[in-house]
Structures are given as structure tokens and as C-alpha cells.
Amino acid sequence: MYEIIGKKNLGEGINLYIISVPDIALKALPGQFIILRVNKNGERIPITLADSDKNNGTITILVQTLGKTTHLLSELNVGDSLADVVGPLGVPTEIEKFGTVVCVGGGFGIAAIYPIAKAMKSAGNNVISIIGARSKELLLMENEMRSASSEVLVATNDGSYGTKGIVTDVLRELIYDKKMQIDRVIAIGPVIMMKAVSDLTKEKSIKTTVSLNPIMIDGTGMCGACRVLVDKKTKFACVDGPDFDGHLVDFDNLMNRLKFYKEEEKASYECHMKQHHNI
Amino acid sequence: MDKTANTNKQNSLETKERLKIKKHEMQSQSPDERRSNFKEVPYGYSPEDAVEEAKRCIQCKRPYCIEGCPVNIDIPAFIKLIEEGDFLGAAKKIKETNALPAVCGRVCPQEDQCEKVCTIGKRKDTPSVAIGNLERFAADYESKYGDIRIEVNKRKDKKVAIVGGGPAGLTVAGDLCKMGYSVSIFEALHEIGGVLMYGIPEFRLPKEILSRELKVLEDMGVGIFTNEVIGKTITVDELLTERGYSAVFIGTGAGTPKFLNIPGEELNGVYSANEFLTRVNLMRAYNKSEFDTPIKCGKTLVVFGAGNTAMDAVRTGLRLGYDDAKIFYRRSRKEMTARLEEVHHAEEEGIKFEFLINPLRFIGDENHNVTAVECERMELGEPDESGRRRPIPIKGSEFISDINAAVIAIGTNVNPIVPSSTPGMNLNKWGYIIADEDTGKTTKKGVFAGGDIVTGAATVILAMGAGKKAAVAIDKYIETGIW
Ligand SMILES: Cc1cc2nc3c(=O)[nH]c(=O)nc-3n(C[C@H](O)[C@H](O)[C@H](O)COP(=O)(O)OP(=O)(O)OC[C@H]3O[C@@H](n4cnc5c(N)ncnc54)[C@H](O)[C@@H]3O)c2cc1C
Ligand SMILES: Cc1cc2nc3c(=O)[nH]c(=O)nc-3n(C[C@H](O)[C@H](O)[C@H](O)COP(=O)(O)OP(=O)(O)OC[C@H]3O[C@@H](n4cnc5c(N)ncnc54)[C@H](O)[C@@H]3O)c2cc1C
Ligand code: SF4
Ligand code: SF4
Ligand code: FES
Prior knowledge:
Chain A is of the alpha/beta class. Chain A is built from 9 helices and 17 strands. The relative contact order of chain A is 0.13. In chain B, the strands form 5 sheets. In chain B, strands 5-4-3-6-18 form a 5-stranded parallel β-sheet. A 5-stranded parallel β-sheet of chain B has the order 8-16-9-10-11. In chain B, strands 12, 13, 14 and 15 form a 4-stranded antiparallel β-sheet that branches. At the A-B interface, helix 1, strand 8, helix 8 and helix 9 of A face strand 7 and helix 13 of B. The site of one flavin-adenine dinucleotide (FAD) has 43 residues of chain B, from helix 9, helix 14, helix 16, helix 17 and helix 18. The site of one iron/sulfur cluster has 14 residues of chain B, from helix 4 and helix 5.
């Protein structure tokens, strides 16, 4: 049913997949996600759409191998099929002509921010992208990001490429040293990064959109597992989000909720590796 | 009593004799045994027990039981067939009006429906005929020994789309398919069944029974498309236009959980009933060795609420291994809405019920895991809009109770995905779809709706009843073109 028709290893346990799902490809908009199951006893995991192609009926996702489910996925190859793919879920990112838009992406967040940068550029914005990685080789989708932005700024932890440091260092420079007039910031990446970006832009009241990634099950508003606190109110990230105003999100709560099943996830991963890979 | 009884010759037993027969209870797993497994609680009747129970029915001339059943099953007729030993005939009789008898026999609140108005139940010393148990028996017997294929009329060249694979949608699908329409069910989850799949646990409705009833639909030729979120993957308007469906039925249920809106609700270990039950049922988290979705276990679980959902959650908690699984309810025992049998089973299993308790806040540890709940005690005041006495807090009665998990089972709101993506379909002030009670017609041409998405959370059989009426109306609309 949901056949993998393309796969590429991008290093550091990150794989790109192109999957054939015409109905989803037809509808997908920047900022939306899918939920997939690798096999019929598997969990449902949410993954952001990195790209879609209406003509070929395909979607592109980038997945970082973390635990059992993403590991099982990493073992699939072109020609294999996924048990389930459902979407596109969530509210698409608000795309408008804002003026200057800064897109900040870290880790697989770069994949998620790419379609947004592309759409922001088509909407007539001056798009500046800040992307980060630990080192030069690990930087994802640089070429794609360049084509979707007027300017791409890079931060690497080891200084092997671009600014030495993290994406917020680059953003701070833009805001404080270069005194750039920024109309909107979009930040997608690890929670800690989205929090840091939001803290930074709050000082200058630059409206900032973040994409939240809580634990989900159905992705249709039925279970409430994905609830997040925004402006002290309970919101369901799968139907009210995943985009929210970064200045109103309770990031600490999100980080805590993401940790809830750590032990079970670890045990399930270890058990799988022992049974199937003798490690 | 003889006046209401049918004195037909075939009725070899005198009414007097019938009234003397004692009600047959179903044999069940003992409470001690079932506390730690997910297998179904009652075993069901043996053929002998079923015949004996069937003999208790006095074949009333005016069978109130039929009026008490929302889909008007010909109850005396099927019971008579059971008495005569024609179990397959009985099942066939039921299926004339109810496509999911094995489900309804198990989950209907019979004490509020067919059995509530049963003539003999109105007498002081004779409990109602166990109509639900008999229905379940006939359906289970047929599945073992019968040929459960269903005759389907000649194909019409018209297509109908059903949104949501719960009891409402399944009923419309089955009925329209029998009439010869080409029917497709679009379901958001990876399995159909609605609440029957993700909400009601295995020990009350084994998935195998559900699959069996679903397979009948598939064999009839109903097209089943899972992983299709209508309003996202495809919209209702697209179904009616680009996809060429002549009519759409919306049966998406009342699926968004309500929360208490009290401090600490975001702590880890505080679940909605839907999340807790979906992990265990749809995702099979209770079977850790084979399925990947996790669930936690601990010492104390408290469930807030007292409907079927609350009973299912608390009994699921017990089976997962919580030492202490209990119910906190803000009203009194009398106001509980769960089926009597479930409350009874829960109590047998050792579930504790505490009444007139209202939660105020959840308390967590440094890891953000819930460790306690602060509550206050209530007393009953004047009746409210629902006619139930309103609970009011007792000053100074606050207390703290240690817990490891809490499940909130206080009801649901409308899921906005379909309503908000379907222009021209009017909603009531709570956001439920406005639909005509007799036909299911919404305010949008070609679109029908029924079940929980129209009424708010109700019952399986009411959802099916709404589906039946909608199927008739959809056929009429397509045949005549008149809206
Ligand atoms: C809206 C959204 C978009 C996402 N987009 C991407 C993406 O584009 N690429 C990518 O690599 N990852 C993405 N994620 C995260 C991805 O879903 C998790 O990495 C994945 O579920 C991990 O599963 P696992 O079994 O391999 O690891 P596990 O060991 O089970 O979990 C590792 C961590 O992932 C998180 N997680 C676990 N289960 C779930 C779940 N059911 N739902 C959400 N998070 C979970 C938890 O924080 C957990 O600690 C996204 C998450 C959300 C909510
Ligand atoms: C835990 C629990 C226990 C219960 N116990 C009983 C009981 O013992 N007896 C009883 O009579 N009743 C019981 N009920 C109530 C009963 O289950 C419901 O009234 C009944 O299921 C309603 O049927 P429905 O067809 O309207 O909707 P549902 O059963 O809710 O089914 C709706 C379906 O639509 C799907 N859907 C939703 N949105 C979309 C979309 N956008 N696109 C596609 N598909 C969509 C959902 O995934 C779901 O499968 C219980 C309910 C719960 C939650
Ligand atoms: S469907 Fe429900 S109400 Fe009707 S006869 Fe069966 S158990 Fe009774
Ligand atoms: S089930 Fe009860 S009401 Fe119905 S015919 Fe038999 S005795 Fe009469
Ligand atoms: S994932 Fe279930 S409500 Fe959002």
C-alpha cells in the first residue's frame, strides 16, 4: 500500500524516504505532518512532511533513528511498504507576506522548515534561514535551503562551517548586532532550541512560530495524549497545532511530557536489538 | 397475567409454568481469575441454558420489549425460535433488524431498554427475560455453526460514502449495501469499529467478535478505507463532487476528550480515558511482548467519572496490574450512568467506589510525574438541568490521596475536523451536527449524519438506530433526487 520508492541515508542515523501516497501528496501543505506505522504491531509515530510532489503522488520525510520504531523504519528499503500512513494532519503553517522571515532549523527540524521557507519565499518574503548541526558533514539539506532562501546562515558546534556555536547565536547577532528588522521567526528543531529562540525573540517582541512535537497516538484530536500548555491553556498539538506562538508555549512542560515513556521505550529498543541483532 | 400471554397452541407451556422458571445467569470467569487477564468475563449461555431462559418469555400479545429496543428487534419471535431449538433461525430473525447482534447483546444497557419494559419484569418476583444474553447467544451460535453470508441485492450504479467506521457508519453501510449500493467507509484510524475498537475493552467485547461482524460487511462488498481522515485527506465536498458519491453519511462520533481544567492536569500519568483505553485496546499495549505501544503500571490508579468509559478504564487498570484501582465520582451511586452489569462486575473484581468527591488539583514530583490528588467532599443539593441533584462542596473537607495515575472519564466534546471543513452544514451551539431525527438529513444537500456526532455521547444501539433511519432516507434521496 504505502510503498517506499526512494531512500537516502543522510548520515548520523538520519534517513530520507520518498513514499507513494497520492491522496496525501495532493493535499499536503507546509507545516503539516503524517502518522505512520511500520508494521501491524507497531506504534503510531508522527513525522513532519519535508516535501510533497502532487504529480508523482509522493511525499518526502526525514527520520532520525532514535528508538525501536524509527530503527525498524531504518531497516526498510526501496520496494518495502509501511503498514499505515495517514495525513496530512495538523493545521498548515500560516503563510503570508510578512516582510523579512527568519527560518531557524536544527537537526531534522531543517527538513520540516524547508517547505515553509519555500512557501514563504513564494509568498514574496525576504527569507533568511539559519540552520545548524554539530559539524559540517552533518548539516542537512543545505542546497535545498539555499534555493528556498535569500540567504542561508550556518552554525556548527565545532566551527567546522559557518559560525562556531548554535543557531541562537546567529539569530542574536542578526537581532542585536546587525539590528535587522525581522517580521516573523519560524523555529523548528529540538524543544530546547525552540525555547531558546523564543526567549530571544520575546525580548524584542518578534512574533515567533514553533512546531511542537509531543507524544501522539491518533493525531486526530481523539486521545488528548498530545496536549500542550499554550498561554496556560490546554491545546491538542495534533489538531490545534503543531504550530503555536513560541512566546506562549510552556516548553518545560513539553520536555517533561516527552520523557514519560523513556524507560519503556529504552527497554523495548534493547529487547529488539537483542532479539534481532544480538547486541 | 394470562391476558397478556399468547395462548397459542404451539406454546406448550402454560404461562404459569413459565413464570416459575428461574432466571438463568451466564457462567463467568471468577472475579479472582479475571482480575489479571483480558479475557471476556461471561462465557455465555450453553444451549440448554438458553432454551430454559427462552421459556421464561410469555410471548406477549403486546410485546413492550420491542418498543424498548431502539431498533425494534422482533424479540418474542427470536426468543421463540431459541425455545424451539432453532438457534440459527433466531440469529437470522435478529439480523433482519440488527446487523451487530453479538455486539449489542454484550454492550446494550438492556436494563434501560428492552429489559426495562419487559412485561414479566414488571411483576414483583419475576426478573425480566434476559433478552441481551439470548441475543448474544444466538449471534455467537451462528458464528460458530452458521453461514453468515448475507444476501445482497443487484448492484445499483450509485455510490455512497460513509465517514467513520463506528456503529452508526457500519449500520448505514450494511443496509445500503444490502439495497445494492456501492458503499465505501472512510475511517481515520488504522482499524474500523469506532469506540467498539478503541474504547470498549477486550474483556467486555473481544476484538475477535467485532472482527467477525466486520468481516460479514466486507464479504458483502462494503469497501473499507482506513487511514483516511475526512476533512484532511479528502473533504466531504470532494466526496460529493470529484469522487462521485451521490450521498455522504457522517458518523464520526463524539471523540474529543474533556478535561477537568484543574492545576496539575498536564502532569505525566494523568490520562484522558480515550488515551488510556486507546493505548490498551486499539494499540494492544497490554500485550507488551508483541506490541510496541507502551503503557505504565503502578500502585494506585484513580478514575474520575462513573459512566461506561470510567468502568472500562478502572477495570483495565486493574488488569494491567495496578494494586489499587478505584473510582472517584462527584455525585452519588444513584447518578452513575454505567451499565448495571459493569458496575456489578467491577465491584466483584474489588474496584472501590468513592462517591461525592471532587478533584481540585494534581500534585507531582520533581520528574513531573503525578503522585497525589487533592480532592474535596461534596453533598447533594437541588436538582440541576439534567434532573440530577447538583453536588456542592463541603467547606473544609479537602484531603490528599496518593496516586500513580489518574484517568479523566468525564465525557467528550465534538471533534472539529469534519464540522470545520464542511461549509454549509449547520451545527448546534455545542458544535454537534444538526440532523433531522427521522432521516439524518443535515442542512447540506446530500449529506446525512447520525450517532454521537449528532446526539453527543450516547449508546451503540442508538447510533445504529440513527444509521438505519439514515440508510432508508439516503435510498429515498438517491432514488427520487428530492432533498
Ligand atoms: C508533529 C511531530 C512531528 C515530528 N516530525 C519528525 C520528523 O520529521 N523526523 C523525525 O525524525 N522525528 C519527528 N518527530 C519525532 C518522532 O515522532 C519520534 O522521534 C518517534 O516517535 C520516535 O519513536 P521511536 O520508537 O523510534 O523512539 P522511542 O525510543 O520510542 O522514543 C524516542 C523519543 O521520541 C518521542 N516519542 C516516542 N513516541 C512518540 C510518539 N508516538 N509520538 C511522538 N513522539 C514520540 C519521545 O520523546 C521519546 O522519548 C515528530 C514528532 C511530532 C509530534
Ligand atoms: C469506553 C466507552 C465505553 C462505552 N460503553 C458502552 C456500552 O457499554 N454500551 C453502549 O451502548 N455504549 C457504550 N459507549 C458509547 C458508544 O460506544 C457510542 O455511543 C457509539 O460508539 C457511538 O457510535 P458512532 O458510530 O456515533 O461513533 P464512534 O463509535 O465514536 O465511531 C466514530 C468513528 O469515526 C471515526 N472518525 C472520526 N473522525 C473522522 C474523520 N474525520 N474521518 C474519518 N473517520 C473519522 C473515528 O475514528 C471512529 O472510528 C461507550 C463509549 C466509550 C467511549
Ligand atoms: S439491540 Fe439492545 S435493546 Fe435491542 S433487543 Fe438487543 S439488547 Fe435489547
Ligand atoms: S421478552 Fe418480555 S415483554 Fe417481550 S414478549 Fe417476552 S415476556 Fe413479553
Ligand atoms: S494525538 Fe491524540 S489527540 Fe492529538
